[in-house]
């Protein structure tokens, strides 16, 4: 059937992880201007979150949570991730943050660890970082591989979508109820003509995270 589309507010949107008292976040690292009074830490392996700066007297408490010492200066390319919304239609959205120490490239190749690899242009933000969204079909461990175009710089990152020492996924919410269909469809980009869809079915854009209710 050919469906007209009503786009609703998606239940997606990053929620920053709360940090224990005494921690500060910084968007980028350089080899100069670093305070000797703070120690840089990385989240536990597989966990969401970005590097943190903490006072020396707080380091032991963070290490007991699984945090580890981060290199100074930062690596040529640092990766971090965080949840990008609730699970919907069997898909788990995440956002990947790339923080290069050098000039950002024109493109980046992303191996998401679930059988999908893509090369995308660098969507540079005001701070020089890049953010990409992806949706996974199951709560497992995935190893991402990233390569910057032109300079061959690579980095990898473990995602533990089933949970880790400092984070557990939110319970899956049931789909909205009401008349009409109740099936889920998904794809890369907005929905087009879906021959088997019925009014009231749902569609998730795996690139933008937008959520649609299909109508006649």
Q: Write down the oligomeric state.
A: single chain
Q: Report the radius of gyration as a whole number of Å.
A: 20 Å
Terminal Cα separation, in Å?
8 Å
User: Considering DSSP H and I runs of 4 or more, what fraction of the residues is helical?
Assistant: under 10%
SSE sequence, one letter per element: EEEEHEEEEEEEEEEE
Count of alpha/pi helices: 1
Shape: globular
Runs in which pLDDT lies below 50 for 5 or more consecutive residues are: 1-33
Described by strand count, sense and barrel closure, the largest sheet is: 4 strands, mixed
Structure description:
- The protein has one helix spanning 59-64; strands spanning 4-8, 24-25, 39-42, 52-54, 68-69, 77-83, 92-100, 107-111, 117-121, 130-136, 141-148, 154-160, 184-187, 202-205, 211-215.
- It is mainly β and 216 residues long.
- The chain has a 4-stranded mixed β-sheet with strand order 1-15-14-13, with no helix packed on it. It has a 4-stranded antiparallel β-sheet with strand order 2-4-3-5.
- Strand 8 (107-111) and strand 9 (117-121) form a beta hairpin.
- The longest helix is centred in the first third of the chain and has 6 residues, at 59-64.
């Amino acid at each position: 059937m050919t469906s007209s589309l009503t786009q609703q507010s998606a239940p997606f949107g990053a929620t920053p992880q709360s940090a224990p008292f005494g921690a500060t976040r910084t968007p980028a690292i350089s080899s100069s201007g670093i305070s000797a009074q703070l120690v840089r830490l990385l989240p536990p392996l597989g966990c969401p979150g970005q590097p943190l700066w903490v006072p020396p007297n707080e380091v032991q408490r963070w290490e007991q949570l699984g945090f580890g010492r981060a290199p100074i200066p930062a690596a040529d390319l640092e990766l971090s991730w965080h949840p990008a919304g609730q699970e919907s239609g069997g898909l788990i959205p995440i956002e990947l943050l790339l923080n290069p120490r050098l000039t950002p490239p024109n493109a980046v190749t992303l191996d998401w660890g679930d059988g999908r690899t893509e090369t995308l242009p660098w969507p540079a933000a005001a701070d020089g970082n890049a953010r990409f969204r992806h949706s996974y079909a199951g709560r497992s461990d995935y190893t991402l591989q990233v390569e910057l175009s032109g300079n061959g710089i690579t980095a990898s990152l473990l995602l533990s979508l089933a949970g880790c020492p400092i984070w557990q996924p939110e319970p899956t919410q049931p789909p909205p109820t009401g008349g009409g269909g109740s099936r889920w469809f998904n794809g890369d980009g907005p929905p087009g003509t879906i021959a088997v869809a019925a009014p009231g079915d749902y569609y998730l854009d795996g690139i933008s995270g937008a959520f649609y209710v299909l109508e006649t």
